[in-house]
């Protein structure tokens, strides 16, 4: 039996692709149900990665029905409020990077799986080797299960990763503050118009504000700052959030003031670039559990690519999970290392002294 820990985009995509190939798996998820907690904002699922996995999974049509082409719209400003770039997506534009609510993507994947594939309320506390690649899984509710292949798709704080290496996520020097404006078109129509249908970025030296119009009508607002760990703890009022943008144009500042505190403060953590481990029978990792990197919109896409590659490898090595893992891991690692380097380069641009101009050159392909 293939046991997948974590019902995020990577874990669910893997379960779906295994099912398409006639291979049984079980997903163990710590959430009590699919509605136990909000899933957060939007994901841009990209044509050359995440969308390819969904095509293999036979889910292209429902994905396109749920995704928002207009979510590719973008506005780029500097702290003075000067609009440097505005891109409005035509109605017939290619869906290269359409946005989809995390909840919608999760539901799409969940609904594609046989009943009982996902076991809810199963927080993994330990995995004990039984020999010959098998593991005994112990869950917080006192139950257990056995696996022939254990796949850690359980994110930054993976409980499976310690079976393979000692690496732990480290603070990347960047902290995000997140707030939300609910039902923005009704409650704050002027801000809904300001942000537009997609993404709104205002970038300054070492600091930026991003806002994103979600499919459910919420505008999510993020401030990201290069700062020591803990420097932004306690940001829980509109005044405190706005104070970070002292001197910025009032139209930009009013976005964070309009959010409903308290804000979520999220330090960004990363794993070492190019993280490697000695293969171990019956266990592997995908997604953030394997290659947590700076957040530039690629994480879910990488996890879904990992899922597609691993499912193909398992299907190509019937009865030989270790052979499948041996074929999968080098490809996953090389791609993740290359993408991690690109993400770091992009993040350096976003926090540079001339961040807005640097990103303008990036979007125009000017180097």
From TrEMBL:
<comment type="similarity">
    <text>Belongs to the aromatic-ring hydroxylase family. TetX subfamily.</text>
</comment>
<dbReference type="GO" id="GO:0046677">
    <property type="term" value="P:response to antibiotic"/>
</dbReference>
<dbReference type="GO" id="GO:0004497">
    <property type="term" value="F:monooxygenase activity"/>
</dbReference>
<keyword id="KW-0285">Flavoprotein</keyword>
<comment type="function">
    <text>An FAD-requiring monooxygenase active on some tetracycline antibiotic derivatives, which leads to their inactivation. Hydroxylates carbon 11a of tetracycline and some analogs.</text>
</comment>
<feature type="binding site">
    <location>
        <position position="37"/>
    </location>
    <ligand>
        <name>NADPH</name>
    </ligand>
</feature>
<feature type="domain" description="FAD-binding">
    <location>
        <begin position="2"/>
        <end position="162"/>
    </location>
</feature>
<dbReference type="GO" id="GO:0005737">
    <property type="term" value="C:cytoplasm"/>
</dbReference>
<keyword id="KW-0521">NADP</keyword>
<feature type="binding site">
    <location>
        <position position="288"/>
    </location>
    <ligand>
        <name>FAD</name>
    </ligand>
</feature>
<keyword id="KW-0274">FAD</keyword>
<dbReference type="Pfam" id="PF01494">
    <property type="entry name" value="FAD_binding_3"/>
</dbReference>
<keyword id="KW-0963">Cytoplasm</keyword>
<keyword id="KW-0560">Oxidoreductase</keyword>
<keyword id="KW-0503">Monooxygenase</keyword>
<dbReference type="GO" id="GO:0071949">
    <property type="term" value="F:FAD binding"/>
</dbReference>
<keyword id="KW-0547">Nucleotide-binding</keyword>
<dbReference type="InterPro" id="IPR002938">
    <property type="entry name" value="FAD-bd"/>
</dbReference>
<comment type="subunit">
    <text>Monomer.</text>
</comment>
<protein>
    <recommendedName>
        <fullName>Flavin-dependent monooxygenase</fullName>
        <ecNumber>1.14.13.-</ecNumber>
    </recommendedName>
</protein>
<feature type="binding site">
    <location>
        <position position="102"/>
    </location>
    <ligand>
        <name>FAD</name>
    </ligand>
</feature>
<dbReference type="InterPro" id="IPR043683">
    <property type="entry name" value="TetX_monooxygenase"/>
</dbReference>
<feature type="binding site">
    <location>
        <position position="44"/>
    </location>
    <ligand>
        <name>FAD</name>
    </ligand>
</feature>
<feature type="domain" description="FAD-binding">
    <location>
        <begin position="283"/>
        <end position="317"/>
    </location>
</feature>
<dbReference type="InterPro" id="IPR036188">
    <property type="entry name" value="FAD/NAD-bd_sf"/>
</dbReference>
